[in-house]
Amino acid sequence: MKKFLSNLLIIIIIIFLLNICYSKIILKDSLIKVFGKAFVIVTTGSMEPEIKSGELIIISEENRYYKGDIVTYEDDENFLVTHRIVNIDENKFIAKGDSNNINDEENLNSSIKGKVIYQSKMLGNFVLYFLKPIVVIYIIIFVGINIYFCIIEKNINDNMQLKNTKEKSKSEEISKKEEVENEKK
Fold it and tell me: Could you report the per-residue pLDDT of 85-133, keeping only the tens digit for each?
């Protein structure tokens, strides 16, 4: 059961990494989406008090978007913007940050990446903390040391098992020789 779970975890990680590669390299998408959902960290206060700077949001691709929906879209300069739709028609929409005084420029509906379905200040701060270069270095070192010691432990266990097998074989040979000698007498 333990081996099955570890193999399942490895398969899930491989699928996740393949999805990332597919999104970034083949689709050249600015977001990494998993089952139509993506994580975004808001870096400005344009949506305060609804969404504060540093919050992690989860966006979901939808078939339709409506006036009043908070969406993340890609603007003309390829920046991701999270604002509320104030006007929408068949092909274009206008959005505005809740704390902004003016509307954004008109954009195509196809530039919408998704609607905000979840937000969390705590998770945003957590992710931002773990994206700091020094923390990433510590995590890589920690994982590397653990992998190294797992490999060493496996080698030690394999060597012990091999040694035990050899000792067992020798003792079996000695006992067989003794039996043969006893039978000769």
Answer: 999 888 899 899 988 889 888 888 888 888 999 887 777 766 666 667 7
On the 0-12 / 13-18 / 19+ scale of CB atoms within 10 A, 125 is: middle
Query: Are 29 and 23 contacting, i.e. CB atoms less than 8 angstroms apart?
Result: yes
Distance CA 81, CA 88 (A): 16
Q: Please tell me the pTM assigned to this model.
A: 0.59
Q: How far apart are CA 64 and CA 80, in angstroms?
A: 19
pLDDT over 80 at 48, yes or no: yes
CB 84 within 8 A of CB 42: no
Token digits of residue 47: 């949506």
Task: Give bridge partners of residue 41 from the DSSP assignment.
Answer: 56
CA atoms within 13 A on the CB side of 135: 7
Asked whether the predicted pLDDT for residue 69 surpasses 80, the reply is yes
